[in-house]
User: What shape does this take?
Amino acid sequence: MFLRMITKTLIRQKSKMIMIAFTVVLGVSLSTAMMNVMLGVGDKVNRELKVYGANITVRHKDAALMSDLYGLEGQGVNDKFLREDDVLKLKSIFWGFNILDFAPILEGRANLNGSEVSIIGTWPEKHATLPTGEELHTGLKSLRTWWEISGEWLNEDDNNSVMIGNLLASQKNIHVNDTVTIDGKTFNVKGIFNDGGNDDSKVLMTLPSAQKLLNLNGRVSDIEVSALTTPDNDLARKAAQDPRSLSPEEYETWYCTAYVSAICHQIQEVIEDGVAKPVRQVAESEGTILNKTTLLMILITILSSIGSALAISNLITASVIERSQELGLLKALGAYNWQIVLLVLAEVMITGIAGGVVGYFMGIGFAQIIGQTVFGSYIEIARMVILIVAVILFLVTLIGSIPAIRYLMALKPTEVLHGK
Amino acid sequence: MPKTILQLQNVSKIYGNLKALADINLSVNAGDWLSIMGPSGSGKTTMINIIGCMDTPSTGSVILDGTDISKENAANLTRIRRDKIGLIFQQFHLISYLTAVENVMVAQYYHSMPDEEEALEALAKVGLADRANHLPAQLSGGEQQRVCIARALINSPQILLGDEPTGNLDEENEGIVVDIFRRLHEEGVTIIVVTHDPEVGDVAQRKIILEHGRIVDDIDQSATFGEALRLKGKGRV
Assistant: This one.
């Protein structure tokens, strides 16, 4: 009888129920889209933020000590270098997949057309096959996406070419395709770059060229690393102070989470004598932006849920008031308040579930549109969203029904049945 | 000695400054057929609401089948109403999207367990076996009221309470309903009917007249009861 009454009510009130379902569809689709984007956006936002450069630097521990204690940088500070052979080991760490790009840097001083300048040796591009069989494509070009280039970037094997910072180029009146002499060796100027920072007065060349000029074969002064990281929390901050202070459980959680400190720790495990340090400004900005993006999406989800609850509340209350005579009759026939409330809630829940299912799939569609439009890729569907949406749907419907329930509880059969 | 099924002792109902019922004393025996008459505003509906467990008196006590219901809470009143009272309304109050038999089954559902066969039998008793699967909109006023009576009787209540049960019916249908009441009375059902209609009031065994919330007349119609019924009911059902 209960089901019969519900079914017939739903059919009879189909226009109202469609309105309620439509409201639920809107709320659930927005919540589903936002939560899927929120859960899948971490990596995507991080990737977007990679245009701001490396977030980890690795250097020899003695050089790092000099830098930390005295703020000294560059060649001459220390004659300790990292081994170029170790650079590719970065991809072998537990979070190797999260290391998107990296480039070794060898800095030194050399004579350019009669004046001493800073030179940077690096991998402009690097293509290699890792022991795991993975194809690697990285290099400084991927880490300096904001550079404005006149001419062209250096290739992997451009050992006879250099790029000149635009400040230095203008001082020395050097143009693209000019020839320059550095420490007696002639190089073609393949490009002039505008970094907007200190690098604008430096000369960029391939790592082998720099190693040869500086007589530092197989050596690099530091490595710039761009990694996908998880925003720091208390555990990450505690570990950053001293990983040995963590309990075994905490250590495992920290080690298996892509905190920047955990990735640094793992880099140090594979690079002999290396010290990996986060570039705090970049790492923290990424965390802040990610947290704010997440907060924004949570806010949209909450607001859409509140909006749905209000709309549902109005619709259900209007429906119940319209049916007050029928519901009053049920009370007169012996129905308890809870039985009437159950009847109305069941009708609303069934409508809500129908709207929720449609809304969920629409939300997945919206998430993909957002993914394609904003990040240029699909958003991975998180299964846990189904559970969260179900809970939100239940709460929104229940909260939206509260005014109607209060009305039902107060409804007196005598007030609606005599009709005189 | 017949059993007293309902007793109102010094019952008053006060709404602000208005005394809808004033110190009412009334005793109804099991199997009685009582009509309550009076002009509008005399307190008929208030009295039937109190007897039907849909309201409580401001003062006094209402003893229904040995239980004082005047101090019961809403949930208990619902239970008592469900178990002991059958309600018939002037405007029928059938659920528009349920068929006649389903309307009867709703009362079963909230009482105990729906039984379609039993509901069909109840409809047959009021002459609507062939209209069981019709929606209220497909039934005439008289047929709707008969569905309402079947619904009121389905749980075998101790008192059948009618609030202007013939108020919306033409003379023929009024006669049919009265005839059903006659048969129910013969079966021993206690019937209390509020009515404006003197003809319906006259067919009862006993008639009380309310004015300004007081019983101003209590008439024993036993002597003319059979003849009035014969003239009004005419054995239509």
